[in-house]
Recover the amino acids of this structure.
C-alpha cells in the first residue's frame, strides 16, 4: 500500500464492552491512524428465547405503537433452511492479518460507493448532500461526477442522496439510478445518464421513475441494487417516526417498508416483472417484491450465488440481517412490525402469516443501527471468500456472517473500527470491499496487512 495511504482503525478492545451508543456518533478528535482487528469476540447467533413483547416500548419520538395490527396478507412458500452449497470458506479468517486502509478522503458525509471501471480504478462516491465524486486511482476529480444538491433535501440524518445502482450495461449506455429525498423530503427514484467519457453526468439527464411520499423525515431506506435477474431492487423504509405508526411495512398498498423490484429495460420508465408477487396490482402494489421491512438501508446479492442479504435497521432493541436464498419467490414478509428482529413487537400476526426471521441479529447496546454489506467475492483475500460482512453504524464493529454446511449461521466480530461510522459498504467490479466512513469523510478498503 502506498505511502500516502493512511492505515486506519484501531482499538483492540479485548473484552471491553461498549456501554454506550449514540445514534450520532461523536466525531473523534483525530482520525485514527492505524489498523487493527478486533478480538474475536464471538457473536454467534442463537435463536432467541421467549421475549417480552416489545409493543409498548416507547420510541425516541415518544410514539406508542398501535395495539391493533394492520391486516396482513400471507401466502408464501420459501425454501426451508437446509444444506448450504459450499461457496466459500468454512471458517472465519484471522482478522489480525487484515485491515481497512484509506483509499480516498475529503468527502462530506459519504454513504455509498460504485465502481464504473472493471477493476476499482474509477470509483463513484456519494455524498449525502447530493454530490457524486469520481475517484480515479485514488485521486478525486475536481469536477463532480454529478451535483444535484439543489434538488436534494438532506437536512435530516436519514435524508439526502442515499443510494446508487449502475445499470448492468453502464459501460454502453451510461445509465445509473439514484435514490434520494427531494426538498420536500419525499423519495425520488431517478435515472441519470453519464456523458460518453463516463467522467460526469448532466443533471438535466434526470428521468424520474418513481416518487414516493414520505410522511416523516426518517426511515427512507436508500439502497438500490441490480439483481442477478437484471431487475432493479429498491429499498424503502416504513416512512418513519417510530414503531411504524401507519402500519406501512405490513400494508401492500404502499411502497413504504418494502423491497421493490422493477424492470428498467422492459418499459418507459419501467415495467413490472411478470413474476412480481402482486404484478397485476390486485392484492398489492405491483412494484412490491418483499415487505415487512423497517428500514432496509443496505442490501445486496451474493454475486456468486444470487442469495439476497438485507440489513434491516431495528427500532430500539434489535438490529437484523435478513436472508433470501436465490430462487425464492416474491412476497417474502420479513416481519416488521409484528417483530423486531426475531422478537414480538406489535402483534400478534394473523395465524396464517409466514414471517421470515433474521439469520443474524444483535441487541442494543451492542450497536444501534445495522449497515448491511456484501458477501466477499474478490480475488485478493481468499480467506474471506463467501463471508458476508456487515457493521454497526454507531460503534464501528464489523462482523462476518457465514452459512454453515447444515444451513445454520455463524456470526463473528472481526474488526472494531474505532472512530469510524460505517454508513455503507461498497464492492468494486473485482469484488473487493470498501467502507464509507460517514463522520470522517473517508473511503476505506479491506486489505491484507502489510508486514
Ligand atoms: Ca421517511
Ligand atoms: Ca424482520
Amino acid at each position: 500500500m502506498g505511502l500516502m495511504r493512511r492505515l486506519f482503525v484501531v482499538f483492540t478492545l479485548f473484552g471491553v464492552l461498549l456501554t454506550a451508543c449514540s445514534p450520532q456518533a461523536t466525531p473523534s478528535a483525530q482520525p485514527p491512524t492505524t489498523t487493527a482487528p478486533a478480538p474475536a469476540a464471538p457473536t454467534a447467533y442463537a435463536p432467541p428465547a421467549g421475549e417480552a413483547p416489545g409493543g409498548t416500548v416507547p420510541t425516541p419520538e415518544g410514539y406508542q405503537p398501535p395495539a391493533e395490527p394492520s391486516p396482513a396478507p400471507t401466502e408464501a412458500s420459501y425454501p426451508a433452511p437446509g444444506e448450504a452449497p459450499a461457496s466459500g470458506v468454512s471458517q472465519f479468517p484471522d482478522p489480525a492479518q487484515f485491515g481497512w486502509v484509506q483509499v480516498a478522503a475529503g468527502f462530506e458525509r459519504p454513504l455509498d460507493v460504485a465502481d464504473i471501471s472493471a477493476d476499482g480504478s474509477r470509483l463513484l462516491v456519494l455524498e449525502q448532500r447530493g454530490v457524486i465524486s469520481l475517484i480515479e486511482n485514488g485521486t478525486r476529480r475536481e469536477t463532480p461526477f454529478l451535483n444535484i444538491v439543489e434538488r436534494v433535501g438532506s437536512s435530516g440524518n436519514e435524508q439526502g442522496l442515499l443510494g446508487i445502482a449502475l445499470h448492468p450495461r453502464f459501460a454502453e449506455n451510461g445509465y445509473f439510478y439514484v435514490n434520494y429525498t427531494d426538498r420536500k423530503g419525499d423519495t425520488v427514484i431517478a435515472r441519470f445518464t453519464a456523458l460518453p467519457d463516463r467522467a460526469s453526468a448532466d443533471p438535466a439527464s434526470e428521468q424520474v421513475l418513481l416518487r414516493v411520499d414520505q410522511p416523516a423525515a426518517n426511515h427512507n431506506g436508500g439502497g438500490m441494487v441490480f439483481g442477478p435477474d437484471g431487475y432493479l431492487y429498491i429499498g424503502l423504509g416504513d416512512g418513519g417516526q417510530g414503531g411504524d405508526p401507519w402500519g406501512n411495512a405490513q400494508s401492500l398498498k404502499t411502497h413504504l417498508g418494502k423491497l421493490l423490484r422493477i424492470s428498467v429495460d422492459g418499459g418507459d420508465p419501467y415495467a413490472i416483472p411478470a413474476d412480481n408477487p402482486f404484478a397485476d396490482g390486485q392484492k398489492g402494489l405491483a412494484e412490491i417484491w418483499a415487505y415487512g421491512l423497517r428500514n432496509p438501508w443496505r442490501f445486496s446479492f451474493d454475486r456468486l450465488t444470487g442469495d439476497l442479504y438485507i440489513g434491516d435497521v431495528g427500532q430500539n432493541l434489535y438490529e437484523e440481517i435478513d436472508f433470501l436464498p436465490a430462487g425464492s419467490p416474491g412476497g417474502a414478509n420479513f416481519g416488521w412490525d409484528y417483530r423486531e428482529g426475531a422478537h414480538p413487537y406489535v402483534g400478534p400476526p394473523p395465524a396464517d402469516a409466514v414471517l421470515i426471521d433474521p439469520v443474524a441479529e444483535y441487541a442494543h447496546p451492542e450497536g444501534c443501527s445495522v449497515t448491511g454489506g456484501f458477501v466477499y467475492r474478490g480475488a485478493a483475500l481468499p480467506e474471506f471468500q463467501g463471508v458476508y460482512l456487515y457493521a454497526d453504524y454507531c460503534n464501528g464493529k464489523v462482523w462476518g456472517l457465514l452459512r454453515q454446511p447444515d444451513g445454520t449461521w455463524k456470526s463473528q466480530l472481526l474488526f472494531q473500527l474505532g472512530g469510524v461510522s460505517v454508513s455503507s459498504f461498497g464492492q468494486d467490479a473485482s469484488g473487493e470491499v470498501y467502507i464509507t466512513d460517514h463522520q470522517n469523510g473517508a473511503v476505506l478498503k479491506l486489505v491484507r496487512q502489510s508486514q
Summary: The domain at 2-33+47-56+107-372+420-439 is CATH 2.120.10.30 (Neuraminidase). The chain has one domain: 2-33+47-56+107-372+420-439.
